[in-house]
Specification:
single chain, 533 residues, mainly alpha, 3 domains, globular, endoplasmic reticulum, transmembrane helix
Length: 533
């Protein structure tokens, strides 16, 4: 538990760095480049990169991180290397679609589009070359390696982008293509260099590390045995079918924008900027928790076994952790939803000026604040569900995801025509709600034959709910009277009102949610307090 918590905390710091850098980089590039160029990079090309990477590796990651670290790692590594040819297939197929079937931007506004498609697709293949190293490090909880590798890659990308934007803004997509290639190259090289130094060292021997030399991290034939572990391979296939659908749900609005042309490239740029701002807090907290505690639940409980067949001590620990995680993300999501409504316009005005705060930007960010609440709950419920599902249950869930994917695309299309880019957020809320309902049903059925009720974590204190309502009303009236065209003194008054309401909310949490506060202090904050002493 402590290792999983440590991994979540460190991953959260990484997400903070990545999102803050992206946040600052967007604010900087807005002053040098067009909205259309930012829209093509952040929506069209990034979608190509993320689709290739996700479809090629997500299923392998989930399958190979399940179970104990005591396994035949040679077969697992052989399986992981299959991500590279799979990635090449998706790169060629999707690259042709991006170049020949989709609308090509005006070269006078967004130059060098073809080079951008090639570079972003190639960057996905380079990143897949480091997949065996990443899984091995993640399975053995090499927290510091992940922090250093991703930090260096993000910082390198940021520095190169800033230099090229200032010196050669006319290069267009060449700037972001070179920065993307540098990012993945630094990321992979950090993992390779670390394992070159680590393998065979006294530290590796002390930890009884299962890999002794670098050649063991390449594909190897096992005498008189199969090339891969077929149990892992079948599980990978099940997760692959699911990951294909999950990618549509996760990046659905970008697929609708890309393939159906419901927004022009300029509007796509504004939507992506607001989307990054809205997800700044959500993703750097919730995603690391989901990834790290998926590993925790998968190791503590055995996949496919019911609650009676598990070790009861493990069930008690898993139920307690799940309840507290649900309470933690629920309160974070409620806080963002309540205070995000009244401070969306002010945040956009400070960040991007009237270009963002004068149109649909504030309403878009307000809706995103509500969407954050759905993201919070879905992340934890799904990480527990996916860690426990057997192959047959995963296959059945694939049919649910298939229906949900089709429904999502239809709803996104119609809501976008009805309410512009806000329709994307509303459609995402609907999808997350359905996924949450499925996961809650699974968790309820799993624990119904035990005395544990972890879903009570979704029930906050009534008094805390009252404080949230009062805070929402006060900050809402404060926005009407003080924000955002009445000068900086009025803005400061609005910020002060929000700070007082936020302080009251936090104090109420400390008084009413003592069990949760103890969990956060003992697990997430303990190692930082120890460092301080």
């Amino acid at each position: 538990l402590s290792q999983a918590t440590r991994l979540a905390s460190s991953s959260a710091l990484l997400q903070v760095l990545f999102r803050v850098v992206t946040f600052g980089l967007n604010a900087f590039t807005l002053r040098y480049l067009s909205r259309e160029l930012i829209g093509v990079v952040n929506v069209r090309l990034t979608l190509l990169y993320s689709t290739v990477v996700f479809l090629a590796r997500e299923a392998f990651r989930r399958a190979c991180l399940s179970g104990s670290t005591k396994r035949n790692w040679t077969k697992t590594i052989n399986l992981l290397w299959l991500t590279v040819p799979l990635g090449v297939f998706w790169y060629i197929f999707l690259g042709l679609v991006w170049l020949h079937l989709l609308e090509v931007p005006d070269p006078s506004v967004v130059p060098h589009y073809q080079a951008g498609v090639v570079a972003f697709g190639l960057s996905a293949i380079i990143e897949l070359l480091g997949e065996p190293f990443w899984v091995l490090a993640q399975a053995h909880l090499f927290v510091r390696l992940k922090v250093i590798a991703e930090s260096l890659s993000v910082v390198s990308k940021c520095i190169l982008t800033v230099i090229l934007v200032v010196l050669y803004p006319q290069w267009g997509l060449y700037i972001f293509s070179l920065a993307q290639l540098l990012y993945v190259s630094v990321l992979v090289m950090c993992y390779v260099i670390y394992f070159v130094m680590f393998l065979g060292s006294p530290e590796a021997t002390k930890k009884s590390f299962p890999i002794a030399r670098m050649t063991a991290l390449l594909p190897n034939l096992v005498e008189d045995e199969t090339f891969v572990n077929w149990k892992e391979a079948r599980l990978t296939w099940s997760f692959f079918k699911q990951s294909f659908l999950k990618q549509i749900l996760t990046e659905g609005e970008r697929y609708v924008m890309t393939f159906l042309n419901v927004l022009n490239f300029g509007d796509q740029g504004v939507y992506d900027i607001v989307n990054n701002l809205g997800s700044l807090v959500a993703r750097f907290i919730f995603l690391p928790i989901e990834e790290s505690f998926y590993v925790f639940f998968a190791k503590v409980l055995e996949r496919g076994k019911n609650v009676k067949d598990q070790k009861q001590d493990d069930i008690a620990m898993a139920a307690n952790v799940l309840e507290l995680l649900l309470k933690l993300v629920l309160l974070i999501g409620l806080t963002i939803t309540v205070f995000g409504y009244a401070y969306s316009q002010l945040a956009l005005d400070i960040y991007g000026g009237s270009m963002l705060s004068g149109g649909t930007g504030p309403d878009l960010l307000r809706c995103y604040s509500l969407y954050v609440l759905f993201l919070a709950i879905n992340g934890v419920t799904e990480c527990f569900t996916f860690a426990l599902m057997c192959k047959e249950e995963v296959d059945r869930y694939n049919f649910v995801m298939l229906a949900l994917s089709f429904t999502f695309l239809c709803i996104s299309y119609f809501l976008t025509h009805w309410h512009g880019s806000i329709g994307f957020i509303l459609a995402n809320c609907f999808n997350m709600g359905i996924r949450i309902a499925h996961s809650i049903h699974y968790i309820y059925d799993y624990f119904k034959e035990s005395t544990y009720r972890p879903l009570t974590g979704l029930l906050p204190s009534p008094f805390l709910v009252l404080v949230y309502i009062v805070s929402g009303v006060i900050t809402g009236f404060s926005e009407v009277f003080f924000c955002c065209d009445k000068g900086w003194m009025a803005r400061l008054m609005h910020i002060s009102m929000g700070a007082l309401c936020f302080a009251a909310t936090i104090i109420t949490m400390f008084c009413t949610e003592t069990k949760l506060i103890h969990f956060v202090r003992s697990q997430f904050l303990s190692r930082y307090m120890k460092k301080g002493t």
